[in-house]
Design a protein that fits this description.
The protein has 4 helices and 3 strands. By secondary structure, the chain is mostly helical. Helix 1 packs antiparallel against helix 2.
């Protein structure tokens, strides 16, 4: 039962972190008395919890069993696995050089992030920031798992 609680915590805490960051952004953009902030946040929270649960089920559970099989379930291996399992899919899916053949240009908030298919420094920083943020979300999930897991796995 405690392992189940650990996996639920591993899915819930990163989603909660994403929702808090989203809600902060909503209050930065819109007026505080905008009633639709809470509607948008609720919808975003549902998506976050499903995606986080999917990550834990499809990536975290197999990683846990591999670590347990080799008797490597330690705090450092758990946190490292959580970071890598969250950051790597983001890095692969958003790799900026995959658009180099298209010779496209892009900008975010008036800042050029790609010119003729080549990422600018701002583009690489944006890419790194996104990968690190999701890596931290994975780290938070792994920490929640580690703290809630039974002592025999520590």
């Amino acid at each position: 039962m405690r392992v189940l609680l650990a996996f639920i915590s591993a899915a819930a805490f990163p989603a909660l972190l994403m929702v808090v960051c989203y809600l902060y952004g909503q209050f930065q953009i819109f007026e505080a008395d905008d009633p639709y902030i809470w509607v948008r946040t609720k919808n975003f929270a549902v998506i976050c919890f499903f995606v986080s649960g999917g990550f834990v089920l499809l990536l975290g559970l197999p990683a846990y069993f591999v670590l347990r099989k080799f008797r490597l379930v330690r705090w450092w291996s758990t946190l490292g696995a959580g970071f890598c399992l969250a950051a790597m899919p983001m890095a692969v899916l958003t790799w900026p050089l995959k658009y180099s053949e298209l010779k496209t240009s892009a900008s975010v908030n008036g800042v050029q992030t790609m010119m003729d298919g080549v990422p600018t420094l701002a583009g690489w920083l944006q890419f790194t920031q996104g990968v690190l943020f999701l890596g931290v979300c994975g780290l938070v999930g792994a920490l929640a798992f580690w703290l809630a897991a039974p002592n025999k796995f520590r």
